[in-house]
């Protein structure tokens, strides 16, 4: 134990060494938040596979690599960021290695939604933020959230006022450009009562060397709000991507999320969703990985109050010697009667070296509930392959078609057409084996 | 229709096949010529679907003896897709659902693939849309089925119509219809039978597996075969089907047994 503790301490210390770069804020509460987080980082250790929550996911690689906080900002040209443009989006906030890039960002001030970097948000309405920022993504016992919060400086802030409904999505783009750095993307979305908004959280890379993204996103839905959240993890293939998401749904609000994981050598996404009365959520995911990639998704859907509904479909397409992990916890608390919860984990293994660990976890403390869950792991169905062949398609084409269809079921749920077709193409490219 | 000197489409000689070590086909003989319509009847489990799927190239069945020639070629030298391109078409007894594969895309890809292999024109998406809608009209299918996943959530009868739609598009030389009539309501039976009759011509042949005379009222067979325990034990004309409907299968088996004992 002692050796690994030393290694851990060294690793965290090296990451925290950059903290002096985070200037103190004039806001006392923000300084307190950060210093609490620093304290927690001092107490917590980097998880190992001995921790139940990290049993399948070996991140010891993080210890062997030296990441440093971003020291210099890269001056990206508009064209370099432009290739990630999503045409439907009216506003786009761009962060380069976690640092806000105002010259690459486009902010539509007409449609009633406030989309700004944290600094501007604090200047405009610090009081509203004090009660939200860092209050949903638990960092006291989660070392990566704690690290992110310790480094809290730039952040994407989306505030949708009451009853404002916008169809054009907001694009939050995080571009990795430097090797060996650790960056700390942060998002806070506040959806006022009765508001409607679509947000795309997008992680991309302009280089293929190793780096570390440690992201935290908090989403708060007031009563009757509706949020579409699309999360695209298309990091570089040597990256380590660890993210924590926390979503809080007030009464009768509706959260629809699709998250896709294509990139990173190692990725881990923890998502906690907490539902109040009559709230509804759909939490869907697709991990499409190959080679030596590892993609781990841990979700916890917490039915804290009665009459709420949650649907979850998580899929993994695993090729090469890749490894996918899904742990889906559904919690139905005492008194959360009439909970309606459906969860399904479906996994497709393309090779016999590919590997999946899937674990649905139901914890039900109410008696009048409807909860279903199921998990499948398998190869392509040989009867389906034969059916397609019997219509003249070669076996390779048949297999490609079925693999693509398996992934497309999730991509089709993305309500932004250009992003949907872009990702469909990605799935097509990655699932197409040349004959 | 029986044409004099018509070419042989399918010639099956002494076909034996097993699945998971159990022998199911035990010396099956059948000759089908261009223009002909054959009906295969027989009790449940006698091997009719097994035979159909072996012709289409299903890999679960192991051929242990006999030969099958299709248009002069050894069928067993051909992959399932090569058979389809050469003109073998099986309408499945239980068409499978394929979630996520959109019907219109699937139909267009199969159509164009088969066309290419027959040195015929492919259709672009717009042309194909017109083409497939025309075919669907004949089968009184709603165009809504184009946008759905292949067979997913289709009713039993809708799945059968989707099979006949594919048959109509792929213009097979040999169509094997495995209980296409089961699960069809009276109107659908007539519509599907019309679809099949439109295909039937002097250049292609149809083999229908059925349990019921009612289909044969619409698609009149030139030959009716009785299959039992993996062999064809009796062949007659359309009158045989009426007799089977009236008397069941037992007498055929008995007659066959008596004949073989007499021969011995
Ligand atoms: N994959 C398989 N594994 C084991 N047995 C099989 C398999 N496929 C077919 N059989 C067996 O082979 C026999 C013939 O089945 P087949 O489906 O060919 O009958 P059929 O004549 O089409 O019957 P029905 O009229 O009920 O459709 C049956 O006893 C069946 O159980
Ligand atoms: Mg059958």
UniProtKB/TrEMBL annotation, chain A:
One of its GO terms (biological process) is iron-sulfur cluster assembly. InterPro entries: Fe-S_cluster_assembly_SufBD, SUF_FeS_clus_asmbl_SufBD_core, SUF_FeS_clus_asmbl_SufBD_sf, SUF_FeS_clus_asmbl_SufD, SufBD_N. Signal peptide: none annotated. SUPFAM superfamilies: Stabilizer of iron transporter SufD (SSF101960). Residues 24-171 form the SUF system FeS cluster assembly SufBD N-terminal domain. Residues 174-406 form the SUF system FeS cluster assembly SufBD core domain. Belongs to the iron-sulfur cluster assembly SufBD family. NCBIfam families: sufD (TIGR01981). This is Iron-sulfur cluster assembly protein SufD. The lineage of its organism: Bacteria, Pseudomonadati, Pseudomonadota, Betaproteobacteria, Nitrosomonadales.
TrEMBL record, chain B:
InterPro entries: AAA+_ATPase, ABC_transporter-like_ATP-bd, ABC_transporter-like_CS, FeS-cluster_ATPase_SufC, P-loop_NTPase. GO terms for molecular function: ATP binding; ATP hydrolysis activity. PROSITE patterns: ABC_TRANSPORTER_1, ABC_TRANSPORTER_2. Gene3D superfamilies: P-loop containing nucleotide triphosphate hydrolases (3.40.50.300). Residues 10-254 form the ABC transporter domain. It comes from the Bacteria. Keywords: ATP-binding, Cell membrane, Membrane, Nucleotide-binding. The keyword Magnesium does not apply. SMART domains: AAA. Belongs to the ABC transporter superfamily. Ycf16 family. This is Fe-S cluster scaffold complex subunit SufC.
